Amino acid sequence: MIVLDTCAFLTQKHPEGEYATVPGIKNEIVNKQSKQYFENMLATNLKIMKAEKSSYEIVQKQAKETGDFDVLSRVDIDIIALGYQCKGTIITDDFAIQNIALALNIKFLSCSGKIISEKRIWRYRCTACGHIEKIKLKNCSVCGNEEIRRVKLK
Ligand SMILES: [Zn+2]
């Protein structure tokens, strides 16, 4: 199964096979040509699917570990969960999606040719005291400072 993220419909670059995508993608495809492409695929070999709850739990847990959770949209999480569940190949240009795919051993390809080569670990660091968290908080839990930056650990 080939799981298509938005870029696949925008660029029309993806391998041949059986396709699946998630319900929210439709709203992300705005230009006329891509919409037409999407509709044509839907009429032939594209299925709209949603993963089961157990797959979401695994994806969300992993996203918190890599520090990608706060930059992922709902649709992004849908895509990863579906790729995980059907053991498919995800087609995406989104580095956060690629990062979690890498961490979960899900195959992925990009439309642009740009692909991350190693897993990245992100954390949230207070600019005042340097305290580090896995998820983004509004205020630093140590000193209360509001300026928190996303930093790459590795
Ligand atoms: Zn602080």
Question: How much of the residues is beta strand, in percent?
Answer: 15-25%
Q: In order across it, which strands form the biggest sheet?
A: 3-2-1-4-5
Using the CA coordinates, give the radius of gyration. 17 Å
In total, how many domains does the architecture comprise?
2
Order of helices and strands: EHEHHEHHEHEEEE
| Discrete helix count | 6
CATH topology name of the largest domain, in short, is Rossmann fold
CATH architecture of the largest domain: 3-Layer(aba) Sandwich
Ligands present: zinc ion
**Helical content class:** 25-40%
Main beta sheet: 5 strands, parallel
Low-confidence stretches: none
Overall mean pLDDT score?
A: 96
Distance, first to last CA: 31 Å
The CATH superfamily of the largest domain is 5'-nuclease
Structural class: alpha/beta
Short recap of the structure:
With about 150 residues, this protein is an alpha/beta fold.
Please write out the topology.
Blueprint: E1 2-4, H1 6-11, E2 19-21, H2 25-28, H3 32-44, E3 46-48, H4 53-66, H5 74-85, E4 89-91, H6 95-103, E5 107-109, E6 122-126, E7 132-133, E8 148-152
Parallel strand pairs: 1-2, 1-4, 2-3, 4-5
Antiparallel strand pairs: 6-7, 6-8
The chain binds zinc ion.
How would you characterize the overall build of this protein?
By secondary structure, the chain is α/β, with parallel strands linked by helices. It folds into 2 domains: 108 residues, Rossmann fold, CATH 3.40.50.1010; 31 residues, no CATH class. Helices cover 38% and strands 18% of the residues. The protein contains 6 helices and 8 strands. The protein has a 5-stranded parallel β-sheet with strand order 3-2-1-4-5. It has a 3-stranded antiparallel β-sheet with strand order 7-6-8, with no helix packed on it. The two termini are 31 Å apart. The protein binds zinc ion (ZN). Zinc ion (ZN) binds next to loops.
